Amino acid sequence: MTPDEETELRRLVRDHCGTIEKLLNDREAMAGRLRQLASAYPTSVFRPLSDIDLDEANSSLSSVGLTLDRVAAHALREMLLNLANEIDGGSHDE
How far is Cα 26 from Cα 10, in angstroms, rounded to an integer? Predict the structure, then answer.
């Protein structure tokens, strides 16, 4: 290996190490942000739902032409789009 090739190899390794470190830091920051967002809905305030609760909610929603699946799909879709927005800094429109 020539001195120039060795220098280039060292530069590439250094650059890749910096990229890997940035990705790990970004991942840790995103995990922290997700925990922060989740803490806005503590189970002490928003009690977890039982199967009975879900059945009753589904019955109530069906009386106005909705289903719990449709409401849950909407909520999850919005959550995932907002998560994507957090990750890429963009916005979503549908």
Answer: 24
Q: Which parts of the chain fold into alpha helices (H)? A: 3-38, 51-62, 68-88
Question: What is the pTM for the complete model shown?
Answer: 0.55
Token readout for 3 is 């001195």
> How far, in Å, CA of 5 to CA of 43, rounded?
58
Measured over the CA atoms of residue 88, residue 40, residue 76 and residue 94, the dihedral's sign is negative
The model's pLDDT over 31-66, given as tens digits with 9 standing for 90+, comes to: 888 888 889 889 999 999 999 999 999 999 999 999
Question: DSSP class of residue 44?
Answer: T
The domain spans of the chain are 1-48, 49-94
End-to-end CA distance of the chain: 55
Q: Give dist(CA 19, CA 24) in Å, integer.
A: 9
